[in-house]
Amino acid sequence: MMLRTQTLNFATLILVMSVLMILIMPLLAGCDGATLPATVPVTVAGKTFNCKLAITNATREKGLGGVASLGADQGMIFAFTDSQQHNFWMRGCLMGLDIAFIDPLGFVTAVHTMPNDPPQAAGETEDQYLGRLVRYPSLAPAQFALEVAPGALAPLGVKRGMRIEFDRDLLKKLAE
After folding, report:
1. Would you identify the CATH topology of the domain 39-174?
2. Residue 164: pLDDT above 50?
3. Cα–Cα nearest to 89, from 64, 57, 106
C-alpha cells in the first residue's frame, strides 16, 4: 500500500509541476516580448527615422521586400549578431531604397542608393533571377544596415565615416 501512495504522490507532484510550468512559461515569454519595440529611433544628422527591426534571419531576408512606399521618417534597421562584410540586394523590392551600412560603433562604412530591380520574370528560374540582382557591399565589416526611402540620405550628407545614432547595445542583444 505504501508503494502505491508514493507513486500516486509522485504522479500528483509531476502533474502539479507541469501545470505550473504551463502557467509560468507564457508570463516569462511575455516579459521578453514586452521589451521588443515595434520600431526604434535612428538619428542621422539630426533627422530621426522610426525604423522597423530586422533582427532575425527571416526578417533580414525579407527586409522591405513587398513594401511599395515609405514615409519620410520611416525605415528599417538590420542588426546582425556580429560585424562582417555584407552584400544587400533588392530581391522582391517594389521601390528603390537608400542604404547605409554601419559598424558596431555606429560609423557608416558605405552608402548606396539602390534602384529596384525588375521583378522575377515568367519563365525566369530562381537562380537566374538571383544571379542578375545587383549586390551592394558594406565595403568594410558592418553589424547594422539602415534602409530608408530613396534620396533620403544624400540631403543629410551621409557618407563613409559619419556617425549614426541609435541604441546599438539593444540591437546587439536582440539580434539572432
Report:
1. Jelly Rolls (2.60.120)
2. yes
3. 64
